[in-house]
């Protein structure tokens, strides 16, 4: 049996103050706050999810905001750069927007694609790249038109302690196809129209340290619970240790650390984010898993208040 994931489900990072996080990903990047909940393993911390209008797999970036926490250090064993896809011809719009909003960026190139590289307020490394594939993001509440807005993930750059071993896992375990290679990177592609390109950096970046501004893990897509259990058995058959299934309310998750020390998750596409609030109201209320409802009052008092607010356009 050989398996292949469709692509990236979500990426999860650690950041600083939650209001700064909301202001940037909604106000600057124009993503929708699709879910406001808590870290199930650390309920005194938010878990915030941003994505397209529906919160589709391949568009979701999630955050654990720890105000005043120590900064991390980007290095081996991490997702070093998170890449977003914008429609063809949209990069000049984003250049103008970043200049207007005072956001520093650099123009670079990789595998023949022009890239805008920048960081969020807490040091997370991001980039925009034009891609023709993927549906337009119809969430225009921040004033960014759909033909310019972020569609979802273009992909990511993996910083590995053992790049060739990570490349082997991507190809032989996760089922991605090697499509390009140069002196710096090996590129892999999955079948999805979004969140489908992953580059492995071929040279070590030195040991990383988890903290603010770092990606915690990258999650890959499973079709459903049955497919996820197949993945669990399949990964174990390759000699990698996998956690039991974890109920994350909006998907089920299993985790394993690949040979290059990057934390991988496999998450189910269903049930998605609209099962505990409507599609129209997603992200407007603090949603708690059943086991924490009895502590709602205490949690609401301890969590830093956040609001969706528009920046000066």
Fold and architecture overview:
The chain has 313 residues and is an alpha+beta fold. The chain has a single domain, classed as 2,3-Dihydroxybiphenyl 1,2-Dioxygenase, domain 1. The chain is 17% helix and 34% strand. The longest helix is centred in the C-terminal third of the chain and has 13 residues. It is globular, with a radius of gyration of 18 Å. The N and C termini lie far apart (52 Å). GO terms for molecular function: dioxygenase activity. InterPro entries: Extradiol_RC_dioxygenase, Glyas_Bleomycin-R_OHBP_Dase, Glyas_Fos-R_dOase_dom, VOC_core. Keywords: Dioxygenase, Oxidoreductase. It comes from Bacillus mesophilum.
Count of structural domains: 1
CATH topology: 2,3-Dihydroxybiphenyl 1,2-Dioxygenase, domain 1
CATH H-level name... which superfamily?
2,3-Dihydroxybiphenyl 1,2-Dioxygenase, domain 1
Helical fraction equals: 10-25%
What is the average of the pLDDT values?
Answer: 96
Features:
313 residues; alpha+beta; 2,3-Dihydroxybiphenyl 1,2-Dioxygenase, domain 1; eight-stranded mixed beta sheet; 16 strands
